[in-house]
Design a protein that fits this description.
single chain, about 180 residues, mainly alpha, two-stranded antiparallel ribbon, 6 helices, about 55% helix
Length: about 180
């Protein structure tokens, strides 16, 4: 609607009717170039990307299993490992000196391995069965070893080798 000089409203003429007088069309504004971001927005974006990359690196590094031969920042269980290797040496020494027989050696080895597993896992493993050792993290090697020790420890006569049994126990303690 168009307001006339008298203040009365009169209908606007449309372009389709051919009357172009008095029609006001809005023209689009000039196109403006895109606004540039401030320098601090770019810096903030780069810092956030660096933080995200650092987070992914830390998560991947801290959750991946590491090779057994390589240690990260020292071995937290070196003292426990050395203590139990010394106990294994004492058990072998008692066997070689004649203080204990093959049965007693295997019982000693069983006891030392269970003590080591308790120190490593924080779980009392003194009464766990061989099958229960298989459910503990890294317990499968212990389960195999303890299963090998059960026959000589409880049989009246055994063909087990003392040196092999002690070497296997040392290997498990060193590897875990």
């Amino acid at each position: 609607m168009r307001v006339t000089e008298t203040g009365a409203a009169a209908p606007l003429a449309s372009l389709a009717d051919g009357a172009a007088d008095g029609v006001w069309l809005a023209l689009p504004a000039e196109a403006q170039p895109p606004t540039q971001y401030s320098w601090w927005v770019w810096v903030l974006g780069l810092v956030l990307l660096a933080l995200i990359a650092g987070w992914y690196w830390w998560v991947l590094r801290s959750t991946r299993p590491h090779a057994p031969g390589r240690s990260r920042r020292g071995d937290a269980y070196a003292a426990v490992r050395a203590q139990h290797l010394a106990l294994l040496d004492e058990a072998q020494g008692r066997f070689e000196s004649g203080e204990s027989d093959l049965r007693a050696l295997h019982l000693d080895l069983n006891h030392v391995i269970r003590q080591f597993a308790t120190a490593r896992t924080g779980i009392d493993t003194s009464s766990l069965t061989v099958a229960e050792f298989g459910r503990i993290e890294h317990g499968s090697a212990l389960a195999v070893l303890l299963e090998d020790y059960s026959e000589p420890a409880f049989a009246a006569v055994s063909d087990a080798q003392a040196a092999t049994a002690v070497d296997q126990a040392r290997e498990v303690v060193r590897a875990w």
